[in-house]
Structure prediction request, 483 residues.
Amino acid sequence: MKSLKVFLIASLLLLATMGVAAAQDSPYDTPFVTSVTYQNISGSQANVIFNFYPENTGTPTPITVQLAANAGASLFIGGLQSLPSNFSGSAVVSSNQPIVATLVQIPQSSTVVNRPLSNGFSSASSQVTIATVLKNRFFQTTRFSVQNAHSSAVNLTVTFFNADNPAAAPIELTHNNLPVGAAQSFDAGQLAQLPNPFNGSAIITAVQSGTTTPANIVASALELGITTTVPNDVKAFEGVSTGARTVFMPSALCNAFGGQETFYAITNTSASTGTDVTVTYSNGNSEVKTVGGGRKASFRGCDANNPANYNGSATITSSATDIVVIGKVAGTGISSAFLGEPTGAARLALPYVRWTADANYGAGANRQRAFIAIQNVGSAAVSNVTVSYLNKNGETVGTQTIASIAPGAKANSNAAGATLATGASANALIEFGYPEGNPGGGFGGSVIVEGPAGSQLVAVVRVASRLPDASLVAEDYNGMSTQ
Prediction:
C-alpha cells in the first residue's frame, strides 16, 4: 500500500522539562511544547509513523501509532520519553492512509497563553515564500524554519526584501547540506545581516547539494511579540510554495466583535516584476496598491470605506505576477494569522476543533472554542454544505447544514450550532473535543466540511480562549483539502 507523507515543522520546539517562562518574559523569550493534532481522512484504520529529526540532523527517532477510520488524535511531544528535553526540530509523518495534521504550540508560561497553530504539508516545491518577516518591528520578531522535503541533502538560499525601504538591495543568506527530513531555523532577531528594525518578506529556494537541480522544501514561521506588555502577541503561519493571481480570504473584519480588524500582508513572488494588487471585499468595496518585485504591501480591513462592524470575506487579485497572502486579526486581544487560498475544494478537513460548555468557558479557565468561517470561492452558489463534528473514535456526533453560500460569501459554524447525532452522548457537543464529550475520555475533536461535488470551499478555524480578565486570545489555521 502506498505510503503517504506529511511534513511537519515543529519550529523551535522545546519540551516541557525545560521549565516555565518567568512571569515577565515576552512571547519571544517563551519556550513552547508542540502537540500534533492529526486526523485520518479515510474510511480505514491508519498505521502512522512519526519520524522526528533534530535540527539540521538526518537521523530520525520513530514513533508508531494507529488511528481509527475518520478519527482525530493528539500526540503531545512533551510526553515522548524517546526525545530529549531540549529537542528542537521537525518531523515526517508516513501513513498507509491519507492524514492531515495541525501543529499546536503550547507556551510554557504563566502569562503567555495563546497557542500558535500551523498545518503540516502533503506537498513541497523548490521555492517557498514567507509573506512577512519582522525584526523588532511592530513590537514583533519572526522565527522561521525550512525543512528538506527532498530525497537527498539540499542547499538553501534565503533572500530578504525590505518593505520599509523598497530601494534597498535584497539580502541573501545561504545554508548548505541540510539533511533529508531535517529543518534549519532562522531567527530574524539574531540575523546581523538584517537591519534593525526590519519589515519585509523572504523568498527561499533550494537545490540538491552540489548541483543546480531544484529540490523540494517546506517552511513555517512563528511571529512573536518582543514586549511583556502584550503577552499573547504570538501567531504561526506556513510558507507558501505556490502563489496565484487570485487569492481568497474567508475572514475580513472592520471593528467587528467589539473591535477586531483584519490585516493582509501580500507578497509578490516575482523578484523582478511589479504588480497591481486589488482587494475586493464581499460588500463590493475595494482597494488597489502597487507591489514591487519581491516586496510586500499591507491592507487594512477598515480601509476601502468598510464600515464598523463589517464581518465578511475578500478576494484578492494581482495584475501581472503570482502573490501570496497572510491574513492577520488584531484587536480585543486577538493575535492570529491564516493563509489566503488560491483554490477551494468540495471536502475540507479540520483536525483541531474544540468546544467548551458555557459553565467551563469562564475567565481564566484555559478552555477553548473553535469558530469556523467557510467561504464559497466558486462562481455559483453552493447549497447544503454539511459540517460534520467527529469524536476521537471517528464517530459523527453532530452536524450542521448550511443551506446556501453565495459566490465569494462566507458562512459560519461551531459545535453549538450543530444538531446532535442520533445515539450520540448528550455531552458530545456540549464539551466537543474534551474528555467530557468523548467516549472513554481523551482528546480528539475534528471536523469535515463537505459541499456538493464540484464545490469550491475554503475555511479558516479560529480557536479562542478566555483570559482571567474575560478578554479573548485566539489563533487561526486553514482547513485542508482531502482531494
The mean pLDDT is 92. The radius of gyration is 21 Å. Residues 347-481 form one domain.
